[in-house]
Amino acid sequence: MVEPILKWAGGKRQLLSEITAQFPADFERYHEPFVGGGAVYFHLEPERGSINDLNDRLVTLYEVIRDRDPEDLIAENETHEHDEDYYYDARDEFNDLHEVDDKTDDQRLREASLFLYLNRTCFNGLYRENNSGEFNVPVGRYANPDWVQAERIRTLHEVLRDTTIHNEDFEYVRGEADAGDLVYFDPPYEPVSTTANFTDYHAEGFDKDDQKRLRDLAVDLDANGVSVVISNSPPVAELYEEYDQFTVTVVGATRSINSDGDNRGEVAEVLITNVPDAEKRRTTLSEYN
Ligand SMILES: C[S@@+](CC[C@H](N)C(=O)[O-])C[C@H]1O[C@@H](n2cnc3c(N)ncnc32)[C@H](O)[C@@H]1O
């Protein structure tokens, strides 16, 4: 079990046991089409499968960790400084590198290292871009940020060895997942009250049509014998009501990144799955002994 390497909005560390309790006790390969900071993937350490995210800088980081000697990235990380001017220079360099097409391996290593450094030292660990795609989060205030992450990089290098990494829309998994595989979807969403309707529901960047595309994909995967678990906002459960193969469980979550740092209350989320109760990990004998 390895801790996530990044701070990431919507990170699932608090819900790990509730999410993985929905997983089947046995499955072939594991796929995570909205991997983000990868709390569930890293917790599970699956031997084979795929991860994906639309964020190309995030994907570059995971590819560099998988494909390079981990000591190269660790050494690059050790060159950074805990200083405000250094932070803004690093942010400029990170944004300039993003504009370079066909990067060399060393430019990709540098981009990955800058991403880790900025993620660990920026305000609240946020990831935000302006309209031109520039990362624009200001510096944070940390006494002792750890952007080197040596042990996690070494472990993750091993865990990612047989994982395919994609940088595209989540629907890639239609072609990637086979019968017997498990797909865990954690799309962008805002947890809200359980009483809201899907028609009133809005999440920035991932709209109702995307939620319907995700539902249609889940239905197709189910028909192909793939196990599916989806984290989502309570109103979205309406979309699955007419499909008997899916069950919905409401769970509480403590937000790890919040615009209001004092307001870390419980918010409802749902887990939607086609995994029958009898096949879930939580019903294995060892859990009762
Ligand atoms: C809620 S976050 C996932 C958080 C993750 N489970 C964790 O523990 O950190 C959702 C992720 O989906 C990505 N994303 C947004 N739209 C997408 C799309 N259409 N296809 C694939 N990924 C997308 C975002 O970049 C973001 O990293």
Automatic annotation (TrEMBL):
Keyword RNA-binding included in the entry's annotation: no
Substrates-to-products reaction catalysed: a 2'-deoxyadenosine in DNA + S-adenosyl-L-methionine = an N(6)-methyl-2'-deoxyadenosine in DNA + S-adenosyl-L-homocysteine + H(+)
Pfam families membership: MethyltransfD12
EC number: 2.1.1.72
Any one of the GO BP annotations: DNA restriction-modification system
Bilayer-spanning residue ranges: none
Signal peptide start and end residues: none
Keywords: Methyltransferase, S-adenosyl-L-methionine, Transferase
Enzyme class: transferase
One MF annotation (Gene Ontology) recorded for this entry: site-specific DNA-methyltransferase (adenine-specific) activity
Gene3D superfamilies noted in UniProt: Adenine-specific Methyltransferase, Domain 2 (1.10.1020.10), Vaccinia Virus protein VP39 (3.40.50.150)
SUPFAM superfamilies: S-adenosyl-L-methionine-dependent methyltransferases
Family to which this protein belongs: Belongs to the N(4)/N(6)-methyltransferase family.
Protein name, per record: site-specific DNA-methyltransferase (adenine-specific)
Species whose genome carries this gene: Halobaculum saliterrae
